[in-house]
Structure formats: C-alpha cells, structure tokens
C-alpha cells in the first residue's frame, strides 16, 4: 500500500509503505475514507521537532472497517468508523474517568496519511456510525477525530459555561473549532484572536462575537477593554508557544480558567505569577473518545459543520503539497482523499 | 500601643508602634481578641524573604470593633468580628465572582500582631458574629480568618468532591486544616503526608484516613499504591516549595486537580509535563471572605474545631518566643493573646 513518509524537515513523500495488517487480536484495519494534515504535523515538517529517521505521518482518519482481530467485538467489516488520534481500551481507570487520551494502553496514531490504517485497541477506540454517512459529512466527521475534539476539550478544560465570556488564542483549525465549542457550550461572548482575514471570517461564521487582531500584551489590553477591565472567564489556548500561553494566562480574569491544547513547546509557567493570577490551568491531549458519540451526532444532525476548516482538498498522493500549503499558510487545513 | 515588629531575620520585638486609627472613611479599628503567627511569617523570619527595613507583622485576627469610619455601615463598636488576611470591598467584579482576595481594592493585612488593628474596607472585609462568642471558640474563629480559609480554598481549588480521594501535601496548620476541608467536602479517603508524630495524630483526629510518611518520589510511589496505580483525584499543596509542588503534581491522577495554596518560592511548572499529566492546577491567596459565613457557622455549631492547630498559647508580649517555637517546629502554630 502507499502512504506519506517524512524523510527530513520539508521532505514528505507519498510512497510504498508496509501494509496495514492485524498484529494484535485487539486490532482492526480500516480503509481510509478521508485523512488530513494537522497543525502539529508542521512541528517536524518545520524542523521544530527532530526527524531522526524516516517514518510515516498522520493521526486523523475516518474510514471503513476492513478487518478485525479475533478479540474485537461490536465492529464488523464495512462499517464506517470515527476514532481518535490516541487509542484507548476504554475500560481502564483513566478511561472510566473520561481521560481516554491517558489510557493505560494508549498509543498515539502515526500512520494515518495512508490508504489503510491499523487501529490498536479498536473496540475501545472506534465509534461506528449508524450506516454509511453521506460523503458531505465526511470532512466534519474527520474534524471530530482530532481538531473539533481538541477544541471541545479546550472549552471543557477552560470551564466554558452558559453566559460566560470565552477568548480563543490561535486561529488554526483547532482554534476555529474551539470557537464552535465555546459557542455550543453556551458562551455569550466568544472573542477570537486572529490577524488573518479568511480565518476571522470563518471564526465569525462559527459563532465568534468579537475579533481581536492585536497580539501579545496589546492583545491582552484589548481583551481587558472588552471584559470590564478584569479579563475573560475562559481562555482557550490553541497554539502551544510560550507567547500564546502568556497571552492566554494574562487574558483570563482572577478565578477564570485557561484550557491549553496546543502541545507546549518551550513553555514554563512561573508558580508565583500563576498563584497571584488566581487562574486555573488544565490541558493535555484531548480525550476525544469521551466526546465522540455527542460530536458525531452534532455533525450528522447538521447542528455544527466543523468540516469547513478544510479549505483545501487534494488527492492523497499530493500530500506533500498539502503540507506546503499549510506551512505557507495558504490553507488552514488540507483534506486528503485516497 | 504595642505590637510585633521584625527588624531582621530572627529578630522579632514587641515594642511601641504607631496607634491604629481611622485613616479612610471606609476603615474600622478593632481591639484584638486573639492573633497568631503564620507559617508564612517564617519566610522573612528565616531570611527566605528579605527584610529591608523594620516593619510590623501579622495578618490574622479576630477582635472587637472599636471605631468605624464615616462610610462604614452595618458594623458598630463592641461587635465581635472575623476578617481575612486580604481586605476586600466585596462589591467589585472580582469580589462578585467570589475572588475577594483579588479585590480591585485589595490590601494585604500586615500589622495584626498588635493590640489594635486598622482594617481597610471594613464593611466588605469583616463579618460580625451574632453576639460575642464564648472564648473557647476564639481559636477556631481565628483559624477561620486564614489557615482554615486557606485549607478550604485548597480543597475547593483541587475540586474535592463527595466520594473522592484527596491527598494533602504539608502538615503545617494549613495542611492540617486542609484535611478538615477535604473531609467536610465529602472526600471518602483523605491521605495526609506527614513525618511528624504529633501532626499525624492531629491529621487523624481531623479526618485523615491514611498517613504517608515518605516524601518526594517515594511518597508519590506510596500514593500511587494507595490509589490503584493512577494517583489521587485531588491534591492539596499546602507548602509552596518546588519539591512540594512536584510531589503534588505527580500524586494526582490524569484528570485530577491540584489546589496550591502555599505561596510559591522558586516554583516553575514545565508546560509539556503539565500537558501530558492531564492535571488541573489552580491556586492563589485564599478568597477567605467568600467562605466566612459558612465557616464561622461550622465553628460556632461545633461541627469542626480548627482551633486545635494552636498547640502553643502565649501572651502577645512573648511573640518572639512564638516565632522561635514555630521555627524550631516545637509548635505547629502559636496563638497570641493581648
């Protein structure tokens, strides 16, 4: 079979790779319906994370069950399934607590920009839809598997409540999905921080009530102006840099919360500053599995359309161009169809 | 009047100081009923915080209203009052959000180890009891004004819920009060980390179900053993050192929460480690004012007795010995009576 492989920063190739096959009795193999390129794939692509040897790429997927291992029940070939970038047995203590992305048997998916994908712990990881959904829903369901699930978790971790004010730091696909999440969770005011016209438009379409184009301390000052001088109830940090974290922490009011879902790079939080801020902080890889049934339902009933974050669709064999377009910010997010 | 003054590390003197008097129309002056020495007073006493010039000490108090400013309503001379170490107008946005210790007009009390005390923003800061309580309740009410309020906040920030497992890091007066708080908030299991026999006994009396004497990573390993391998739902960090914070973060389960109330000294939290831990973190100076009516009620009805943290009572003029006894860990907490 064929799939995307990174050889070095900037060097993504679509080439022959090992066939996806059942290795454990708890595995399934799926035929990819659609997959995509994630903002976090750009860390190694840009050399911000090292690539010591060539390896496959991709952790987002929806597809058709092709084959299941002998211990998998409740899934059968032909079903359309949505999963998470983190596998989970969905039975361990952490899974039962709703933190499936800290499953004691967690594996991070890493071979999904390919024609077929092996899914470990398939029974606990995958959720099958009721019949095969119309193709127009595939992008939305693909978004559920990572960027919407992550934006949802940002709103959850930032404790967005009905009537509250939420700020979203970051206008990538996760940030834009975080706007959807904040709105769906009842925030009365959703302030999107974005300097890019096309992303601002999508944020407004997704439910943002205000746009702040300033960044850093200037951006914080604008947030304070918009929130009676004290800051926002909830801030959804969807970038992962030290600057974004600082901006998020300073934008929250005393007693407010920051949910941080951008994988931190070079972020350190000063204990005394956090102490006197009274701001709560929680983050991590999104427990997407917890949200899957609800989010799949919201997409299939048309109440949300997170698939709009895909503004470039390419055949899977043009995956390299998909990376380039995102790296150069020509695309928010690239959808890949085998 | 007379009060305690620090001149240098280790040098506390009881001497003549400026009289407490009304300076603003929102002030009150109280006559001290009892006051005490706080664990945080030991930071400057031990030289861990600089003492650049001599200044009064003390931020815990209960007393009798002596005089009120012209804008204070609802308080009158003779009333017995309980306050907080942080003043609050109790009307600003942060106060209305329940974070009175981030009041926009906050002042930290700092002259309370004295015969009389000026209380800024008296109307928003003080709560009068219904009549003058029996003297046996004074230590408990004094504890409410800081150490119990702070332990309560630790349990609140660590999101202790009924049936949960809570760990308390630190066996000072705040840590011991945090045991009370965790139990009162319904924790089924309260694990106190303490190496000191007398403090272990008080922790058990306050409701601890388990004692862990090990510290650092050994202590964390014991906590994991006691919690099915994953860690505790809630950890109450009542020390403020880097080691205590590390111990707290490592003792919480994925999805669990750390409430940190020991003023951080040299604490920095690594963003990526916090991310992958899935642990929530919230701390700060306790919003004692929010809890005052409830906690006063619990003390006066005898449902809790936090006054037991005072294991040494001295006349106020022996305040220097009160510091020494705590510094040498001969006393958990010293009560001072004018």
Question: Would you kindly provide a written description of the structure presented here, covering whatever features stand out?
Answer:
Two copies of one chain form a homodimer. With 338 residues, chain A is α/β, with parallel strands linked by helices. Chain A contains eleven helices and 17 strands. In chain A, the strands form three sheets. In chain A, strands 3, 5, 6, 7, 8, 16 and 17 form a seven-stranded mixed sheet that branches. In chain A, β10, α6 and β11 form a beta-alpha-beta unit. In chain A, α7 packs parallel to α8 (242-251). Chain A is globular and about 60 Å long. The model of chain A has no long low-confidence stretch (mean pLDDT 97). Chains A and B meet through β13, β14, α9 and β15 of A and β13, β14, α9 and β15 of B. β14 of chain A pairs antiparallel with β14 of chain B.
What's this model, at a glance?
Chains A, B: InterPro entries: ADH-like_C (IPR013149), ADH-like_N (IPR013154), ADH_Zn_CS (IPR002328), ER (IPR020843), GroES-like_sf (IPR011032), NAD(P)-bd_dom_sf (IPR036291). Chain A has 338 residues and is an alpha/beta fold.
Give short descriptive properties of this protein.
homodimer, 338 residues, alpha/beta, Quinone Oxidoreductase, Chain A, domain 1, Rossmann fold, 7-stranded mixed sheet, 11 helices, globular, Zinc-dependent alcohol dehydrogenase family protein (chains A, B)
